[in-house]
Amino acid sequence: MIPPHRRMVEDLAGRGVLSPDWRSAFAAVPRHLFLPDVIADADTGGRVDREVDERGWMEAAYADAAVVTQVDDGARHGPGEPTSSSPAPSAAAEAMRLLRAVPGMRVLEVGTGSGYGAALLSHLLGDDAVVSVEIDFELAERARIRLMSAGFTPLVVGGDGMQGWAGRAPYDRVVSAVAVRRVPYAWVAQSRPGGRILTPWGNAFHHGALADLVVGPRGTAQGRFVGHADCVWARADRAPRRLLETYVRAKPDHAATRIRLGPEDLLDDRDASFAVGLQMPGVYRRVRHTGEAGDPRVYLVDPATGSWASWHAAPRHGESGHEVRQHGPRSLFTELEAARLRWVEAGRPAYTRFGLTVSAEHQLVWLDDEDSVLASSG
Question: Which helix (H) or strand (E) holds 331?
């Protein structure tokens, strides 16, 4: 029988996910050394305890799935919100490929988490070339212990990764394991001209688009969105806690209406979701499955105005369409329909046609080139 670790590496290589430059690192760093003793199955909700079922735990450790490594920032009693995770092996391999790091470079990692990413970087580049910053001091200490147990000693700093780490700047590469709404300018300022910044990026509506930026000679960074990353938000950019419980209370202002557009037309289409998010950046969306059939109900919430809308998809409605209710000064679903229509009329551009420019003063999102700015933030 092939050991799970070796099988994972061979599977990634066979699928063309793992680049030859990184194969030795993935082969040399056992993923299970960086995972908790209890692994939750994201699909079934089941849990595998290493002490009870070590073989099953090892299989889960090397499955191509993300593993939650902390909930509720480590608090004992909470809603169980994931606050740190280890990416799926294929996602980690893709991030390392896109990073384009080679020996001789210095890398800043933001969000140490379990320490697995820092171990992979240390194997390829050497311990002295890797700085990893973790905002949670307990996670940082656990990562140091795991890294040392695996034979690696990169610099793991307990601190706010949004500020980077100037002590060993400048960096050739900055890679973030957490999503941000605005790329921190500290990452640009602490990078060499020609350096790269790879980070998940998003807004309240859509997150996880992977921005690949090149730092220019005049203190700016520019690049495109090249993929998606399923990860947690940076602490400063998280959604408000108990979002639906706080805002979805009042009786809707309008009677229910029915429309043909279903949630799947947006939720299952990353390009549409990305484009709508650019036009409604402060509006959160949440999906809840209700009733015996588990029909999805999508909520849109704007905390700034207290507006919300619900969008109920039920196949049994058939030709009558899906139910929509709206409340507050903003008619959020009406805005959503208009935003999606603008994307359709623009030719349904893929998210990879969009780009990002970051400077000390602003962040610009554009389509195809900087002459077509679609969104700006300070």
Answer: none
